[in-house]
Amino acid sequence: MKILADQNMPLVEQYFADFGEVTRFDGRTLQSEQLIDVDVLLTRSVTQVSEALLSHANKLQFVGTATIGIDHIDTDLLNQRGITFSSAPGCNAVAVAEYVISSLFALSQENATSVQGKTIGIVGVGSIGSCLREKLAALDVTVLLCDPPKHEAGQLAEHIDIDELLAKADIVTFHVPLVTTGKHKTLHLMDKARLAALKPGTIVINASRGDVIDNQGLLEVMQNGAQLDLVLDVWENEPNILTELLDYVRFASVHIAGHTLEGKARGTQMLYQKLCELKDVQADKTLADFLPVPAITHVTLQETFSVADLGQLLHLVYDVRRDDGILRRNLATDGFDSLRKNYPIRREFSTVNITGAKHNKALLSGLGFVTE
Ligand SMILES: NC(=O)c1ccc[n+]([C@@H]2O[C@H](COP(=O)([O-])OP(=O)(O)OC[C@H]3O[C@@H](n4cnc5c(N)ncnc54)[C@H](O)[C@@H]3O)[C@@H](O)[C@H]2O)c1
Ligand SMILES: O=C(O)[C@H](O)[C@H](O)COP(=O)(O)O
């Protein structure tokens, strides 16, 4: 069996070598000829799996994307051609939720405010939005939710309309898929008019897809003096982003919100499990077989620890400002894709055991730490 896998997908050899020969490709430049005689194609979000790409795919049986988003995949085409498809739903939901939490605490430190007491609007309440909602439940915040498809399906009674949410929220964070047409289109969900109407001081976080916010409209609104704290992980037209926007963004990163070691490895693991199912093979490899021991595994809190120290603790594991620095320092020389490829190791809160938490056990375990 011939397996073609994106060069930025970790652990492919470890998981898939038993199935056959693994060859790597550059996700941006993959050509249709490279798919001749290939049985399995494993992609990340940067490869458009389209009719043109599959025009020479004479043996393809399985396409997997080690991502949550599937806007780069023509799933109807795969269906028509009888090619089994799998994404990795939820694989990096924890990572994205922790990116948001890290951003909130970094902003609160720098703005000398508190996350506690704020009203946080989550737009898109699927795997990531729900994970974030659970983590936020540990904090003293009000959470507003907007997810029309779920509401219409009777799965989200608390849903409120997006404009009502935007009017009420101090912080709004987007976790929707990119949908370009239809009733629940998310392309430019935040258009210029909505951006201009936001209250001064609103924090806007986008870790979904760049096109969910009209980037040119956002630039114009900011140039016109809007007072927004922007946290952008995703951009229109990646890798060629609108760099003029950077001057107005508090924390900018190169589409890495989901890139914890765990999040990326889970994506590969999920595709491995799907291929095992397809081939009727026992899936005997697990994440624990491959993930390295983290640099920090134990933290002891003292009696004096309080909620006010939470930012300090969270940022021990992940501080979004590291990633902001990477982008600002190196984008012009290295380029967006290279920074993604060479993204430094990041682990999830669950890799840290906390002792001495005492009164803060529920808070810390709610955020995802292991408490003893
Ligand atoms: N930045 C990153 O690194 C990163 C990582 C993972 C996922 N993502 C993006 O985040 C998106 C969400 O991920 P997820 O796992 O939560 O997906 P999901 O499919 O589990 O949830 C998405 C939710 O959005 C809702 N939705 C759809 N249209 C909507 C609309 N118009 N308004 C409000 N809600 C709407 C859906 O009903 C669904 O509940 C992915 O599709 C992907 O594009 C980005
Ligand atoms: O949809 C997703 O899962 C994420 O956006 C994913 O992390 C994108 O990263 P990539 O696949 O390009 O590495």
From TrEMBL:
UniProt superkingdom: Bacteria
Keywords in alphabetical order: Cytoplasm, NAD, Oxidoreductase, Pyridoxine biosynthesis
Principal localisation: cytoplasm
Keyword DNA repair in annotation: no
Active site (record annotation): R209, E238, H255
Pfam families the record matches: 2-Hacid_dh, 2-Hacid_dh_C, DUF3410
Pathway where it operates: Cofactor biosynthesis; pyridoxine 5'-phosphate biosynthesis; pyridoxine 5'-phosphate from D-erythrose 4-phosphate: step 2/5
Function statement: Catalyzes the oxidation of erythronate-4-phosphate to 3-hydroxy-2-oxo-4-phosphonooxybutanoate.
Protein name: Erythronate-4-phosphate dehydrogenase
Name of the gene encoding the protein in the UniProt record: pdxB
